[in-house]
Amino acid sequence: MKQTERRYEVGVSVAVMAVFAALWAIEFGLGAPPEVGYVASAVLVAMIAMPWVIAARLLWRAWWARSGAGRSTMDWPGWLLAAAIATLPDDRRDWGQAMTAELAQVQGRASRWWFAAGCARTAMFPPHSSRVPVGVVGALTAAAVVAAGLAVGHALPALRVFAVSFVALVGAMATLGVARSNRVGQAAPGVTITTAGVAGVAACIAVVAYLLVKHPTAGADLQPKGAVAFAAVLAGCLWLALSPPRGLTTHRLARRLGVGTALTLGVGLVLASRLALSEDLYVQGWLDPESGVSPYVIFAPVVIFFAASAVAAAVARSLRAGVQAAVWAALLGTLAVFVIGLLEAQHWYRTDARLLFDGEPGYPIGNNLADFIWVLVGIPFLGLPFGVIGAALGAKRRRRRSREFHDPGPQPDGHTTLL
Amino acid sequence: MTRSRRPSAQTTAVVLALAQTPTTWRYGYELCQQLDLKAGSVYPILMRLTDRGLLATSWETDAPAGRPPRHLYQLTGPGRALAAELAATAKPATTTSPAAGLVGLRPRREGA
């Protein structure tokens, strides 16, 4: 059993490394050669991948200890079906059990594959009692895409690609949600997260629109690739805020810590920005006009997500609570940094005509937009694995303390006492 | 519970198969084998029929140790009424034998 577990764990590590290797190959194989050279860039990517490898292994170990070990005898059709039924909406969960139980009766490799594949398809796209709502939502989406394209294209042409992509993605998610479940909005993350998430997404769009209205030339820096990435990230944030997976909604403490972490990250960015511009208080090489706020944006999420997740996991005695805190912190913190960053960028531009992220002088203000769209992706990318590592350490430490409390072991005088 | 349109050939086949032994609880895989349909066709049909109150479901109570209990299906009163209606409609097109009627309604095999 231990050997099987280790084999799968190595497989998880290899899979994560393969994803990063593929990203490296796509970036530098198809694009321009790296400025630092192929070897140095590969080493850099490997260093960035390492926290993800560790986080993936920790999550895998936790999952294996909870339910994976019982599945070690599963064949590939069994895994396929298990993965598919994990996506079933709440009102169809019993059908997942039904299909799993039935697969146990199917003999022969080919028959098992066919049966599992058919059930997996059903689990991924369960039938709806009525197709009318799906059609209505789909039609509304199509109409909204056209309307957004026309209206935004007329009022703010630079934002048209974003508007069309965003409305199309949100509409597609809504259509899929209605198609997959008879009941909509079952797994709500709570009023605070929902409100903060929706408000954050709206604020991101508003601040970009404001920037484009105030500085029309900034539109040249919102390239179609960046606009689509921006739309995809915001649509993902909206989905998490409105209808997250069940596994993310079980700990209230995690949600509170997520909100607190996001506030800390946002306030910290304002402080970092103002400190960097102040002549007396800036820290050379870390927070100064030449460095911009990039040291803060890169390192603060790592530290803050790690700490928040460790606290959540330790207090709730649960790795899952820590991971949830990291996810909510990443969701809301990213939105907060984007909005505050673009507002602060205008202050920097007025003060010193520099870009906020890296302090580069002489570039148009629109470059901030491109910088912060990638920050929107970069914060979860950098911070989440450290959140998972913090959660694992918090949960482990709490378990150890708990064991010590209940069983301190034999005392020097031969008695065992409870502290 | 209202039916707005005629069921598909596959749904009809499932309903008639269940109606052959209306008091017996049937398994999903058993229906797949009997009708030569893929699970990807039978389970959505079973879900829809259950949603519409035409099918009663239950869990196996005497499952052997180490095997999960199976899900069982049986037509409800309205389900049997639908089956009778479908059988009456189907008979003139095929033969008088229920089994042959079922074969006559048998849908095309799925490609993949």
Describe this structure in words.
Chain A has helices at residues 2-30, 38-68, 76-85, 93-103, 109-124, 132-155, 160-180, 191-214, 224-242, 252-277, 294-316, 319-352, 367-406. With 419 residues, chain A is an all-alpha fold. Chain B contains 5 helices and 3 strands; from the N terminus they run αβααββαα. In chain B, helix 1 (9-20) crosses helix 4 and helix 1 (9-20) runs antiparallel to helix 5 (98-105). The radius of gyration of chain B is 14 Å and the shape is globular. Classes of the chains: A mainly alpha (419), B mainly alpha (112). The A-B interface holds A 92, 94-95, 97-102, 104-106, 114-119, 121-122, 126-127, 129, 182 and B 27-29, 32, 38-44, 47-48, 51-52, 57, 60, 63, 67-71.
Q: What's the total count of β strands of chain A?
A: 0
Q: What oligomeric state best describes the polypeptide chains here? A: heterodimer
List low-pLDDT spans of chain B: 94-112
**Total E-strand runs of chain B:** 3
Radius of gyration of chain A, whole Å: 24 Å
Q: What percentage of amino acids of chain A are in beta strands?
A: under 5%
Number of helices of chain A: 13
Compute the separation of the termini of chain A in Å.
37 Å
Assign an overall shape of chain A: globular
Q: What's the structural blueprint in terms of helices and strands?
A:
The complex is a heterodimer of chains A (419) and B (112).
Chain A: H1 2-30, H2 38-68, H3 76-85, H4 93-103, H5 109-124, H6 132-155, H7 160-180, H8 191-214, H9 224-242, H10 252-277, H11 294-316, H12 319-352, H13 367-406
Helix pairs in contact in A: 1-2, 2-13, 3-4, 3-5, 4-5, 6-7, 7-9, 8-9, 8-12, 9-13, 10-11, 10-12, 11-12, 11-13, 12-13
Chain B: H1 9-20, E1 26-27, H2 28-35, H3 39-51, E2 55-59, E3 71-75, H4 77-90, H5 98-105
Antiparallel strand pairs in B: 1-3, 2-3
